[in-house]
Amino acid sequence: MQPDPQYRGRFAPSPTGPLHLGSLIAALASYLDARAHGGQWLLRMEDLDPPREEPGAAKAILDSLQDHGLHWDGPVLWQSHRAQAYQQALDTLSAQGVLFRCDCTRAMLGPDGACAGRCLGRQADVTTPCALRVQVPRDCNIAFCDSIQGHQQQALGHALPDFVLRRKDGLVAYQLAVVVDDAFQGIDHIVRGSDLLSSTCRQIFLQQRLNLPTPAYTHLPVISDARGQKFSKQSHAPALESGTAPHNLRQALAFLGQTAAPAELESCRQVLDFATTHWMPSAIPREMWIAAAAP
Ligand code: GLU
User: Fold this and answer.
1) pTM of the entire structure?
2) How far is the CA of 45 from the centre of ligand 1 (A)?
3) Ligand 1 centroid to 13 CA: how many Å?
4) Which of 25, 45, 46, 191 to mutate to test the pocket of ligand 1 (most atoms within 8 A of CB)?
5) For residue 63, is it within any domain?
6) Is the same domain home to 66 and 208?
7) Are residues 132 and 244 in the same domain?
8) Residue 178 alpha carbon, nearest atom of ligand 1
9) Domain co-membership, 168 together with 104
10) Does residue 3 form part of some domain?
11) Residues 76 and 92 both lie in one domain
């Protein structure tokens, strides 16, 4: 692997529950890719959506990462402290004339969640509370190359003629916050689960509008459980036990198709050092879904 000391990666969990095997895989892959390049690995807590948060989850996630030897560089960036930066980005977009207010109820929106310009022609009559949406030009096509999933493209102007940047309840949308914060943290490589693949074109669109750089993307296959459901908190994935941390790391490495660390390497540090030296992104399985329970 070519050293790249400028490399800056990140893990950006939402505090909706404790770490489970699926989130450990994303954390580990982003960590190893950063460390194998000799780069930095940053942590951002995406605590932007209080109604979805679980009390104590942010601390539990940070403790669990440390217990697995996944130590990050620099201070944690908390999205709950970033309201001003998000407002600045909204102001920039507003000055470009691409934002509009939308008071549609859920029932009025299209199947893709788009207002489809219904509110655009009646801005003076839009009642509050209202959402703030960005208009996507009809001919807007976004393409990028994902290092695992290959060439990706979306006719964004057709698929999503507008999308929400600030919700009706006043909360800033993930799509905007992630773009503002990745740029703020200088992230140039994003390694995350492929459940976020469908968001990426919206994020690249916002990067272009805000004149921010587009990072390199790696979307990892998402683990499905035996019933074919995403292995997630919603599907009752169990929280990781810190007492079995080295074993958890080995399990995550197996899912990532990496060489197993020799049995005599017992500590998390030893397993992580071995995995960093032997990191082979090309061995990560290409499928979007791995229809298997934990090995
Ligand atoms: N906070 C998001 C999640 O936990 C991940 C965001 C990202 O990696 O872009 O699903």
Assistant:
1) 0.94
2) 9
3) 5
4) 46
5) yes
6) yes
7) no
8) 9
9) yes
10) no
11) no
Residues with CB under 6 A from ligand 1: 12-14, 46, 178, 192, 196
For residue 133, give its domain range: 83-175
Atom of ligand 1 nearest to the CA of 26: 8
Of all protein residues, the one whose alpha carbon is nearest to atom 7 of ligand 1 is 12
State whether 49 and 193 are in the same domain.
yes
Residue 290 has pLDDT above 80, yes or no: no
Q: Report how far ligand 1's centroid is from the alpha carbon of 12 (Å).
A: 5
Same-domain check for residues 206 and 287: yes
Same domain, 146 and 228: no
The count of structural domains within the chain is: 2
CA of 14 to the centre of ligand 1 (A): 6
Does 278 map to a domain?
A: yes
Query: Using one digit for the tens of pLDDT, what is the confidence trace for 50-95?
Result: 999 999 999 999 999 999 999 999 999 999 999 999 999 999 999 9
CATH at residue 244 = 3.40.50.620
* pLDDT tens digits, one per residue of 143-167: 999 999 999 999 999 999 999 999 9
Give the pLDDT score at 295. 40
Please say if the pLDDT value at position 288 is more than 60.
Answer: no
pLDDT at 291: 45
167-178, pLDDT tens digit by residue? 999 999 999 999
From 131, 155, 175, give the residue that closes a domain. Answer: 175
Residues 170 and 206 in one domain: no
14-23, 229-238, 283-292: which has the highest mean pLDDT?
A: 14-23
Q: What is the pLDDT of residue 226?
A: 65
User: What does the DSSP assignment read for the chain?
Assistant: ----TT-EEEE---SSS--BHHHHHHHHHHHHHHHHTT-EEEEEE----GGG--TTHHHHHHHHHHHTT-PPSSPPEEGGG-HHHHHHHHHHHHHTT-EEEE---GGGS-TTS--TTTTGGGGGGPPSS-EEEEE--TT--EEEEETTTEEEEE-HHHH-SEEEEE-TTSPBPHHHHHHHHHHHTT--EEEEEGGGHHHHHHHHHHHHHTT-PPPEEEEEPEEE-TTS-B-STTTTPPBPPGGGHHHHHHHHHHHTTPPPPPTT--SHHHHHHHHHHT--GGGS---SEEE----
